[in-house]
Amino acid sequence: MNFTGLSLDQAPPISAPVRFFLTAPLFAMTASLLIFFFDPTLLMSRFSLETIVVTHLFTIGFIAMVMLGALQQMLPVLAGVRLPKASLVAALSHSLLSFGLVLMSIGLLQSTKIVIFAATLSLGLGFLILLGAIVTAMRKVSFLTPTIRGMRWAIGFAFLIVMLGMYLLSSYGTGVMGTAHLSFANMHAVLAIFGFAGILIIGVSFQVIPMFYVTPPFHENYQKYLVLAVVSVLVLWALLSFRAEEFAWIAKALLGTLFAVFGYLVVEKMNQRKRPIADITVYYWRLGGVMALLGALLWLLSSYLEADIISFVGVIIGGGFIMSVMTGMLYKIIPFLVWFHLNGMGYMNIPSMGEMVNKKRALGQFVLFVLSLAFFVSVFWLPVMMKLAAATLFVSMLLLEINLVLAYKNYSEVRKRKPDFDMSGVK
Whose CA is closest to 146, among 230, 232, 224? Predict the structure, then answer.
């Protein structure tokens, strides 16, 4: 690995990001159980309450949890700035998000207004507290790298997504949905996928892929202009969607093309590794790149296909692209955090990052994840496959949780013994 340009002395306590990482698979498992027991026909519409609950268990419970945990760790390390009151902010935000997501699921499924309002408040505060801390830290950044610029744009979109989400969720509590509800729902979804998750993945990949996989850096033009191009096209799409919807396909085509290019670049970088030894994270990045490319192309064609194809595209982009990248990064970040924090405390005789995750168990988890994607895709032609898809994903996420917990367990086990060197006086 290449740690050039990192500021390792500003990292938050290990408990701050890890609580988000270890919670993520639990929410994905919960979503899988609900899918298993729900009537499959209810999940074929993206506007059913059941679909909304399941979708947000994945998007907030898994994807957002991983991304928010990663931001807490990466911003101090990559930008050299410390999040204010990192432990308190992390604990408060994590509790509010977890509690709010549970309330949202119960409130929507039971149509209980007071619970929906409580969920809106809890989720809104959970996001805004952590995002506010990140913005406060970002104001102190003196040197803007392409990755930091990507993070800034992603956080900007995150604020907009949270505001839209609070409005949409509260409308289920009031029972009053304005004429623009559907338009706001579409904007919430597109900005969440491409504006927050997509831009953050692109920006972080500029730093993480060359660092962890020892590849040539991304071309300077991609680092300078790819994120800016995505932002510009998203703004164009939003304007056209409200003012000239008949021309929105232009922005949609541009956006799909940009993410198809990024998917290709990811696969290309994985093939340019200077150490051609593949681990489970390489498989996940390759899968994510291929799914980004395929999902972008399908999204381009969705206007000419059946209406429900958008749910199909959601499986490819949300599951195949975003969840793949998030899962792959979990396998890198948690072992790195354990190694980094123990090393900083003076422990030298510790497992290497590659030894913290059982390779066979991780490969089994990956295979099950790929199978679950294939089963979910087949549901659009064979609804009977829904339960098999849900069961396969549940086992995959259970294995992921076990792998991550066992990797993190190295931290507590090593801490039980005396450090090899006294680092208490080192700053």
Answer: 224
CA distances from 147 to 74, 226, 257, 346 (A): 10, 11, 21, 30
| Single pTM value for the model | 0.92
Exposure string for 385-418, b = 16+ CB within 10 A, e = fewer: bbbbbbbbbbbbbbbbbebbeebbebbeebeeee
d(CA 371, CA 378): 11
Is 411 within 8 Å of 334 (Cβ atoms)?
A: no
CA-wise closest residue to 348 among 405, 274, 422: 422
Cα–Cα nearest to 190, from 267, 290, 302: 302
For residue 109, give the amino acid letter. L
**pLDDT, tens digit only, all 427 positions of the chain:** 545 445 555 678 888 999 999 999 999 999 999 999 988 777 777 788 999 999 999 999 999 999 999 999 888 877 777 888 989 999 999 999 999 999 999 999 999 999 999 999 999 999 999 999 999 988 888 778 899 999 999 999 999 999 999 999 999 998 888 778 888 998 999 999 999 999 999 999 998 898 888 889 999 999 999 999 999 999 999 999 888 878 888 888 899 899 999 999 999 999 888 876 778 999 999 999 999 998 888 877 766 655 556 667 778 888 999 999 999 999 999 998 888 888 877 778 888 888 888 999 999 999 999 999 999 988 878 888 999 999 999 999 999 999 999 999 988 888 888 776 655 554 4
CB atoms within 10 A of CB 339: 21
* Structure-token pair, residue 413: 């086990």
The tokens describing 75, both together, are: 């911003």
Q: Which residues of 168-199 are buried (b: 16+ CB within 10 A; e: fewer)?
A: bbbbbbeeeeeeeeeebbebbbbbbbbbbbbb
